[in-house]
Amino acid sequence: MIDISPKTLGERLELALAESKLSQAQASAVTGVPQATISHLIRNKARTYKNSRALADGLKINHDWLVYGRGGILNHDTYYIPIIHDYFRLRLYLSEKFLEKRTHFIVTEQNYGKCMFATVLDTSLLICSEKEESEYIYRNSELLLWTESNKVITNNHSQWIGIFLIHEKRSYNITPNFLIRE
């Protein structure tokens, strides 16, 4: 039986394989780590492994959880995305990574790319990022056009300046305090 609170890398690896219903041979195939090594880590309840990153990446699990027992098994990373309300502060953030101390953040496990930020438009919170040229050209979803005087959602892909990719749109029945501009 598997301990529900594994204490070692080997125990957590055994739990990860059980949860994902993978055999050691299958785990070896997706991670590139020899099956004998995986077996050794589990059998000896190994505390460390020099190639733990390959295991975590191949199994698509959280490296910190596998090695240290921190976080959840699947949440690889946590991203703190600043909520930016006005154009001037957005420009400062994008050019100098400057944020005021009073800046609020939302947390996500999704990495949406370069310079992620969130902003409020009407009653929605938009999670956006700078566009990457390759993604921008082929993308068929909504875009945020944000200038000094205007913030609108558009599908116009011909514009280049002031356009940001919208990755997620969150709506709230009751507006949380952190969305209200101070």
Structural write-up:
The protein is an alpha+beta fold. The chain folds into 2 domains: 9-68, 434 Repressor (Amino-terminal Domain) (Orthogonal Bundle), CATH 1.10.260; 79-179, no CATH class. Helices cover 32% and strands 20% of the residues. The strands form 2 sheets. It has a 5-stranded antiparallel sheet with strand order 3-4-7-5-6, with no helix packed on it. A hairpin with a 4-residue loop joins strand 5 (143-146) and strand 6 (151-154). The chain is elongated. It starts with 8 loop residues before the first helix and ends in an 11-residue tail after the last strand. Residues 134-138 have low confidence and may be disordered.
Q: What would you report as the Rg, rounded to the nearest angstrom?
A: 21 Å
Globally, the shape reads elongated
Task: Please count the helical segments.
Answer: 7
The CA-CA distance between the termini, in Å, is: 53 Å
Q: Classify the secondary structure makeup into a structural class.
A: alpha+beta
Give helix % range: 25-40%
Task: Give the neighbour order of strands across the main sheet.
Answer: 3-4-7-5-6
Largest sheet, in brief, is: 5 strands, antiparallel
* Helix and strand run: HHHHHEHEEEHEEE
